[in-house]
Design a protein that fits this description.
Porin, elongated, mainly beta, eight-stranded antiparallel beta barrel
Length: 190
């Protein structure tokens, strides 16, 4: 099963589980719309190093189901567009425009009205620049598993902004990637 089918299946199963759970709740509990919250973030990045430059624009919508007023779970999707320019050993400029997708399941707990903890498991289909045996730039696809844990601040209210810092515990220690991620976004009814 490829990564896209696995992500779609995981998200579908999560939605079905949440739907069946809410139908089994007693009538005294609140309406389904009252226990759902929505949010997302936007990513923007620029990078330039050793004959290569990259631009990234990403969208990360998410939906949460409040099991209690403090604890919620849900799915998060991600789609990212990149524009990569790389100089080959032949001194030519090669341009690539890969699109990456990711899917995640998360849990959040509000410690106070505006401070929350966030745990997330993500599967990402990444497309990264590399060089073939002739020194010509190419794009390779890699599937990456990430496990994030961290905390954040939400401004509160019906429409709110938030910022949170996460640490990726599955980052390869031999990688040049930094295991810290900062996300800035918004929420509705969190």
């Amino acid at each position: 099963m490829n990564i896209t089918k696995a992500l779609i299946l995981s998200i579908l199963l999560s939605v079905l589980w949440i739907n069946s759970y809410t139908q089994n709740r007693s009538k005294k509990d609140t309406d389904f719309r009252e226990v759902m919250w929505y949010g997302g973030s936007v990513g923007l990045g620029f990078q330039s190093f050793s004959g290569q430059s990259a631009f990234l624009l990403a969208l990360f919508p998410m939906a949460g189901y409040k099991i209690t007023d403090e604890f919620s779970i849900g799915p998060r999707l991600g789609i990212a567009y990149q524009h990569i320019r790389s100089r080959g050993i032949d001194n030519q400029i090669y341009k690539f425009n890969p699109i990456e997708i990711s899917g995640a399941l998360f849990a959040r707990y509000k410690f106070f009205s505006q401070i929350f903890g966030h745990v997330e498991y993500e599967i990402a289909s990444e497309k990264n620049p590399a060089r073939n045996l002739n020194g010509i730039p190419i794009i390779i696809r890699e599937t990456e598993n990430n496990f994030y844990m961290g905390a954040g601040y939400n401004s509160g209210g019906r429409f709110a902004s938030e910022i949170y810092l996460l640490y990726n515990f599955l980052e390869d220690p031999n990688s040049l990637e930094i295991p810290l991620v900062v996300r800035v976004g918004f929420t509705y009814r969190f």
